[in-house]
Design goal:
27% of the residues lie in helices and 37% in strands. By secondary structure, it is α+β, with helices and mostly antiparallel strands. The chain has one domain. Strands 2-1-3-4 form a 4-stranded antiparallel β-sheet. Strands 5-6 form a two-stranded antiparallel sheet.
Length: 86
């Protein structure tokens, strides 16, 4: 699974999760619109699931967007998002 974090113009950050078969730049264009009119992508990468610990972690980078995972700030957004989904 992959993700991007988008910061809107009010300064709020949101995380978006999507299939590993898609690329980051196409997903960012769908979320933010042409020329990223609805926000700025501040980080992107992949999601790793550690079965033993039962924890998801944001890792890596997006080669198509040229941004990296920010580690813990992204992990906090991810875990908050997963709590609201389930």
């Amino acid at each position: 699974m992959k993700y991007i974090v988008v910061k809107n113009f009010a300064g709020t950050e949101s995380i978006y999760l999507f299939s590993s078969t898609l690329n980051h730049v196409n997903m960012a264009l769908k979320i933010c619109g042409p020329q990223y009119a609805a926000g700025e992508v501040v980080s992107a990468g992949s999601i790793m699931y550690d079965e033993d610990a039962g924890v998801c972690t944001c890792i890596g980078e997006s080669l198509t967007l040229k941004v990296k995972s920010r580690g813990e700030p992204d992990n906090i957004l991810l875990r908050a998002s997963l709590r609201t989904m389930y």
